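Intended use. Records like the one below are meant for learning the mapping from a protein sequence to its folded structure. Do not use them to infer anything beyond what is encoded.
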Amino acid sequence: MTGQEGDAVERLNRLWPQLLLALSRPGRRAEAIAAYREVHAILGAELGIDPEPVRPLIATSTAELRAATEAEFVELLRTVHVRSGLSLPELSRRAGPVLLPRSQVYSLLKRGKLPTKPGQVRAFVSTCGLSEPQVARVMELWATLREQTELAVRGPEDDKPFAILIVRSA
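Structure written out for the chain above:
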């Protein structure tokens, strides 16, 4: 690759995420996905290179990131996944060892229960393309629901059974 081609590729790698961000605004999601695929194909077919890995940019407002139950949290993960445009195998590959084997990704979305490993939740939503403040919000939701689940299993402290020890003197 010549110096000019290298410069062009560097500019493309800098500019196309900005294009995707602009197109990812509400109502233009399909255009963003089409632009992503087009640039990826051009870089691959015409220049013979794979673009730098860039997380897909998805239009999700922080206000949409809410869940009051385990089922709602899993549904939130499903929505984030769909908006990312990534297949589950691609998501697993991009997330790296945290979500390997690939069955880890499937179990996050299929079982309908709150995921037990925070690292997997973080890797999943980060790889799907949420911004760091949005990832932090999802992790807050997860922690709150996890705490509620543990309280439900343990029960309040006042409801614990107790024993009375009776000591008799001889």
